[in-house]
Amino acid sequence: MAQGLGVNWGTRATHPLPPNIVVKLMKDNGFSKVKLFEAEPWVLDALKNSGIQVMLGIPNDFLAPLASSVRVAENWVAKNVSAYVSRGVDIRYVAVGNEPFLKTYKDMFTNATLPALDNIQAALIKAGLGRQVKVTVPLNADVYESGSGVPSEGNFRPDIHDLMISIVEFLNKNGAPLTINIYPFLSLYADPHFPIDFAFFAGTNAPVMDGSVAYTNVFDANYDTLVWALEKNGFSSMPIIVGEIGWPTDGDLNANMQYARKFNQGLVARMTQGQGTPKRKTPPDVYMFGLIDEDAKSIQPGNFERHWGVFNYDGSIKYKLDFGNNRTLVPAKGVKYLPRQWCVIAPDASETDPNLIDTINYACTNADCTSLGYGSSCGGLDAKSNASYAFNKYFQTFNQQQGSCNFSNLSVLTKIQPTTGKASCKYEIMIDILKHEKARSPRTSSGTTTGWKAYNFTCFVVVVFLFSSIIG
Hints:
Its EC number is 3.2.1.39. It is an enzyme of class 3 (hydrolase). Keywords: Cell membrane, Disulfide bond, Glycoprotein, Glycosidase, GPI-anchor, Hydrolase, Lipoprotein, Membrane, Plant defense, Signal. It catalyses: Hydrolysis of (1->3)-beta-D-glucosidic linkages in (1->3)-beta-D-glucans. It comes from Mikania micrantha (bitter vine). This protein has 472 residues and is α/β, with parallel strands linked by helices. The protein has two domains: 5-306, Glycosidases (TIM Barrel), CATH 3.20.20.80; 342-430 and 442-471, no CATH class. Helices cover 31% and strands 13% of the residues. The protein is built from twelve helices and 15 strands. The strands form four sheets. The chain has a nine-stranded parallel β-sheet with strand order 5-4-3-2-1-13-12-9-6. Helix 9 links the parallel strand 12 (240-245) and strand 13. It starts with a strand and ends with a helix.
């Protein structure tokens, strides 16, 4: 595995892989660094004596209490850092907040972030961990910008410029890094006219010229914009960590296996070869986002949010990645599944049944149907396959319980694996969490932008497609 390459482990799943299996999955694949979004005991316990270095996150909702009192910060550090360090968890960083200055938050966390950072730092020092554990703040790349679009014009966003300087000064004084999340996929998602070749690492026929420097991909340009912003404000040697970077495999037209493999293979190759950017020749530490798909994440940013994993929900491999020296990804071992049965539409059910749309809507409100959207892996199925996919998702999500395949007499159970006719669209069977030891349900969110749990997939796309199939 490339030096400095880590991974984000998010736990927003209805059927989370047992943490001991996840830790072994990371070790088997050579990931020696992991970034967590919250101090969850069931996760931290599994990391004891694993040899994996941990960046431990603090959710944004904790910032205000931590900012209000050093005592609150001391209690948090004692419970979530000291207690686990003493038991063999190699915690290297505490990530205070997650992208707290996103414009969509409307300054909700702006005033609390630096005081919380200060209090956590003081608490770490008091606990005798000030040298061993460093603080940082994972920030979205929108905290800096370039008016002309070239990196050398980079500077911090005007509305938070002074605050960013104060944060960087604080980190610099305490020997801590700045953490930034960079998502070329989101550049493409936000702008349909974004040059797609520029999102990957293979180069482009139309580079962005910054003086004599040619930028052939958005990552280099984005990263160096930050380096220029730091340099302009007197921090030319500030260490940077890329806290999140990756590419989703479903939930959008550009979120697919081919693009995800192309992007992540390019990223891995750069790390393996020790390739930096035009402005900084040495690559930063990078945490890929993410390790495993999370079917209970908020989809407020987009349906793709549940599909960032390098691995599927059960730790199986999505696509091949070459890590050099004949090393490729290996799947999770020891995963136990629910019985081999599926819930599908009844053979004699009518597409014109007045209850059909309501039952699909109900299933997709309570389970993850993001793969059914336009341009996604199960987009474009016929009406009955749409219904079968939705019914089965609900059935599996609710652990195949009695009554969970009862959709107004429109559904039946089958032990013959159904097919959709699309290679990329499969009827899944969920992990049997009761067969695994103490797989506890997670409580809070992880990921790129938001922090609330809901099975809130808007079924509009699915229902509209189904309705058009019926009347067409």
